[in-house]
């Protein structure tokens, strides 16, 4: 019997506003949008940031294929969580059906989410009005404290500490538990308890990590966001297995997110920094949680062979250094065959011998592990790296 598998895809991971700065390219610039496909085929979308556009385009290509009805959970109405809605192509296709879930905002009253749709598409903010969306849409109001069943999955909603309110969601699937707690700040006793309820025994705990602990203690206090340190503390307290740092600050370059991730990994074993294109599978045989990072957005590849010395850290945390040959090289990255299996999202030093006009030269590059596959030769791992400088 095969075990039930859930698949969680990250389409947008940036907080507050999308970024197109090349320095944020590796983790990605689209605002929050996640897709979860449960083992029973139930399709969930968590938040409708600009990442939603990409997800919609993917469906249009027929790669994933939307199920009969898609369940869209919206945490709150700040721009970064709703911005993608008018650009979600499946909403303009008549046969599609969507069930939306969100809370009644005291600023909007009844049918808050429907009003958000209408306002976003009101003239002159958008070229076509609401009626152009021909897909079937149903709206359900959800309150903090509620739990309900969708297919074989149990969804629970809890209030989190954020200006004008925000819901966190916990989805219990037969393959494992996903807790989605974006946009929350520590400091309110009741709401902190809610956060812990959402994350208890979760296999994947996605938490707001917009600020560094130092920022959170000083000039960003009261902004409604959290840090990696809070995520680690909560994960430890309530036995969450894997922590995903989410909602990266628009001013956090890839380097800054690297540092945040490194700090978190010193304190907690299983941590990822959410990156656009990342896919986590839950419940696969052997390893309960497997993460796949996006490969480099392919580019000019060069058929070449360079002798190289590679050093890094294994998944078990051991330092290693080995000689290898780099065969598949592009401007942004390389596929390197190694006997060691480095940790995903860790840094590698790659020193390559490159022949040139003045003889063989050494080229030192800093790489970042985005992909691990079984190598062509027995006992090797094919390691995909993106060069960061
Ligand atoms: Zn946000
Ligand atoms: Zn917000």
What can you tell me about this protein's structure?
- By secondary structure, this protein is an alpha+beta fold.
- The protein folds into two domains: 6-292, Ribonuclease Z/Hydroxyacylglutathione hydrolase-like (Metallo-beta-lactamase, Chain A), CATH 3.60.15.10; 301-387, Thrombin, subunit H (Beta Barrel).
- Helices cover 16% and strands 37% of the residues.
- It contains seven helices and 21 strands.
- The protein has helices spanning 51-60, 79-82, 112-120, 189-199, 213-217, 228-238, 254-267; strands at 6-12, 33-37, 43-46, 69-73, 97-102, 136-141, 147-150, 153-160, 166-173, 176-181, 204-208, 242-246, 271-273, 279-282, 289-292, 301-313, 319-330, 333-338, 347-356, 359-374, 381-387.
- The strands form three sheets. An eight-stranded mixed sheet has the order 6-5-4-3-2-1-14-15. Strands 7-8-9-10-11-12-13 form a seven-stranded mixed sheet. It has a six-stranded antiparallel β-barrel with strand order 16-17-18-21-20-19.
- Strand 7 and strand 8 (153-160) form a beta hairpin.
- Helix 4 (189-199) packs across helix 6.
- The longest helix has 14 residues, at 254-267.
- The chain is globular, with a radius of gyration of 22 Å.
- It starts with 5 loop residues before the first strand and ends with a strand.
- The relative contact order is 0.11.
- Mean pLDDT is 90; it is low at 296-300.
- Bound molecules: zinc ion (ZN) (2 copies).
- One zinc ion (ZN) binds next to loops.
């Amino acid at each position: 019997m095969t075990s039930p598998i859930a698949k969680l895809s990250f389409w947008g991971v940036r907080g507050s506003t999308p970024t197109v700065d090349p320095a944020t390219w590796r983790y990605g610039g689209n605002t929050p949008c996640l897709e979860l496909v449960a083992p029973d085929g139930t399709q969930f979308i968590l938040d409708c940031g600009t990442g939603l556009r990409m997800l919609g385009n993917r469906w249009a290509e027929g790669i994933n294929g939307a199920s009969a009805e898609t369940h869209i959970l919206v945490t709150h109405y700040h721009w970064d969580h709703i911005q993608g809605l008018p650009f979600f192509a499946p909403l303009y296709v008549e046969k599609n059906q969507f069930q939306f879930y969100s809370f009644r905002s005291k600023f909007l009253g009844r049918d808050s989410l429907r009003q958000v749709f209408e306002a976003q598409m009101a003239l002159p903010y958008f070229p076509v009005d609401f009626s152009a969306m021909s897909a079937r849409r149903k709206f359900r109001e959800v309150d903090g404290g509620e739990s309900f069943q969708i297919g074989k999955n149990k969804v629970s909603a809890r209030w989190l500490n954020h200006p004008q309110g925000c819901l966190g969601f916990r989805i219990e699937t037969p393959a494992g538990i996903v807790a989605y707690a974006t946009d929350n700040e520590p400091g309110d006793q009741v709401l902190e308890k809610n956060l812990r309820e959402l994350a208890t025994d979760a296999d994947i705990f996605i938490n707001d990590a917009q600020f560094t602990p130092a920022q959170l203690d000083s000039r960003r206090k009261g902004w409604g966001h959290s840090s990696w340190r809070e995520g680690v503390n909560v994960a430890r307290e309530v036995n969450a297995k894997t922590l995903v740092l989410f909602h990266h600050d628009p001013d956090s370059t890839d380097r800054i997110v690297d540092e945040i991730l490194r700090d978190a990994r010193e304190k907690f074993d299983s941590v990822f920094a959410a990156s656009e294109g990342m896919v986590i599978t839950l419940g696969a045989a052997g390893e309960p949680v497997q993460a796949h990072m996006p490969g480099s957005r392919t580019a000019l590849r060069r058929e070449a062979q360079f002798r190289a010395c590679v050093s890094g850290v294994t998944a078990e945390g051991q330092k290693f250094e080995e000689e290898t040959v780099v065969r598949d090289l592009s401007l942004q990255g390389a596929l390197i065959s190694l006997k060691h299996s480095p940790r995903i999202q860790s840094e590698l030093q790659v020193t390559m011998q490159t022949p040139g006009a003045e003889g063989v030269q050494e080229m030192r590059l800093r790489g970042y592990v985005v992909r691990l596959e079984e190598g062509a030769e027995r006992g090797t791992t094919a390691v995909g790296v993106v060069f960061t400088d």
